[in-house]
Automatic annotation (TrEMBL):
<dbReference type="GO" id="GO:0004930">
    <property type="term" value="F:G protein-coupled receptor activity"/>
</dbReference>
<keyword id="KW-1003">Cell membrane</keyword>
<keyword id="KW-0552">Olfaction</keyword>
<dbReference type="InterPro" id="IPR017452">
    <property type="entry name" value="GPCR_Rhodpsn_7TM"/>
</dbReference>
<feature type="domain" description="G-protein coupled receptors family 1 profile">
    <location>
        <begin position="39"/>
        <end position="285"/>
    </location>
</feature>
<keyword id="KW-0472">Membrane</keyword>
<comment type="function">
    <text>Putative odorant or sperm cell receptor.</text>
</comment>
<keyword id="KW-0297">G-protein coupled receptor</keyword>
<keyword id="KW-0807">Transducer</keyword>
<dbReference type="InterPro" id="IPR000725">
    <property type="entry name" value="Olfact_rcpt"/>
</dbReference>
<feature type="transmembrane region" description="Helical">
    <location>
        <begin position="139"/>
        <end position="162"/>
    </location>
</feature>
<feature type="transmembrane region" description="Helical">
    <location>
        <begin position="100"/>
        <end position="118"/>
    </location>
</feature>
<feature type="transmembrane region" description="Helical">
    <location>
        <begin position="235"/>
        <end position="257"/>
    </location>
</feature>
<feature type="transmembrane region" description="Helical">
    <location>
        <begin position="23"/>
        <end position="45"/>
    </location>
</feature>
<dbReference type="GO" id="GO:0004984">
    <property type="term" value="F:olfactory receptor activity"/>
</dbReference>
<dbReference type="InterPro" id="IPR050427">
    <property type="entry name" value="Olfactory_Receptors"/>
</dbReference>
<keyword id="KW-0716">Sensory transduction</keyword>
Length: 309
């Protein structure tokens, strides 16, 4: 079949059809977005302005906060605009740009979480080798690898979608340009493409999640030999990581392991990793981390003291 594309723009159907509900959720998402900006900027500022930036765990946390800021900024501002607009249209080119950017940043975030798990594994299972293994060069290499893997994941999806024919209708049953709702608009058989999407996104996310779970089980097993104080500190750190991993991965796996034609709550569940997880991450890492709270107090008191002088 000839690759025809008669669609120049798409129209989002949004999260809800009820206008009063959408007005209510406009203010809720606006508050969430402001909380994401404030929380992640505080983490970035605290880490970069303190000694914590020298520690691999906080170096990766800094990158995670940056990814949360960038990822939500590709999705939430447009969602807010559409909740308050009469017409929710997006051009074909802008849709493809949003698809690429969202999957790039989500892919990088996934591998930053893998790097954080690797850091905790080495710190707890191989403590004597920690400073040698997790040197700054290795940390930079892991971040570079995260960007490279995220790029290849997103470019593969983008090229796949660019080669698909869209002949109409052009209504996307979602609030963001994502591969699964777009596949429902393709005017040819999508079974092979759907399998490729499941392999590229769903299965990869599921395998990485299982590897992360296995690594944390090994970490918890090795904590048996630690002192009670060391065990408490390690458990506090690892529990924060586990909560963030579950919040991000479980909704992703649910959405991307199911085929594109299946009826499920994709757009509602995607709110967990587009809005809720980035909003909760700063709270999880600050409220449960004594070292982070102490660093925040020092940085902000230092700023207050310098301003006073």
């Amino acid at each position: 079949m000839e690759n025809r594309n008669n669609v120049t723009e798409f129209v989002f159907m949004g999260l809800w059809g009820n206008k009063q509900m959408e007005l209510l959720f406009f203010f809720w998402f606006l508050l969430c977005y402001l909380a994401i900006l404030m929380g992640n900027f505080i983490i970035l500022f605290t880490i970069t302005c303190s000694h914590l930036i020298e520690q691999p765990m906080y170096y990766f946390l800094c990158h995670l906060s940056l990814m949360d800021l960038c990822y939500t900024s590709t999705v939430v501002p447009r969602l807010l605009r559409d909740l308050g607009a009469a017409r929710r249209n997006i051009s074909y080119n802008n849709c493809m740009t949003q698809l690429f950017a969202a999957h790039l940043l989500a892919g990088v975030e996934i591998f930053i979480l893998v790097s954080m798990a690797f850091d905790r594994y080495v710190a707890i299972v191989k403590p004597l080798h920690y400073t040698v293994v997790m040197n700054r060069q290795r940390c930079n290499m892991l971040v570079f690898t995260a960007w490279a893997v995220g790029f290849w994941h997103s470019i593969a999806l983008l090229l796949m979608v660019l080669n698909l024919p869209f002949c109409g209708p052009n209504q996307i049953d979602h609030y963001v340009c994502d591969v699964k709702p777009l596949l429902k608009l393709v005017c040819r058989d999508i079974r092979v493409v759907s399998i490729l999407v499941i392999a590229n996104s769903g299965m990869v996310a599921a395998v990485i999640f299982l590897v992360l779970v296995a690594s944390y089980i090994l970490i918890l097993y090795n904590l048996r030999t630690r002192s009670s104080a060391g065990r408490r500190k390690a458990l506090s750190t690892c529990s924060s990581h586990i909560m963030v991993v579950v919040l991000f991965f479980v909704p992703c796996i649910y959405i991307y392991v199911l085929p594109a034609g299946s009826e499920n709550k994709d757009k509602e569940i995607s709110v967990f990793y587009t809005v809720i997880a980035p909003m909760l991450n700063p709270l999880i890492y600050t409220l449960r981390n004594t070292e982070m709270r102490i660093a925040m107090q020092k940085v902000w008191s230092k700023m207050a003291h310098s301003n006073f002088q």
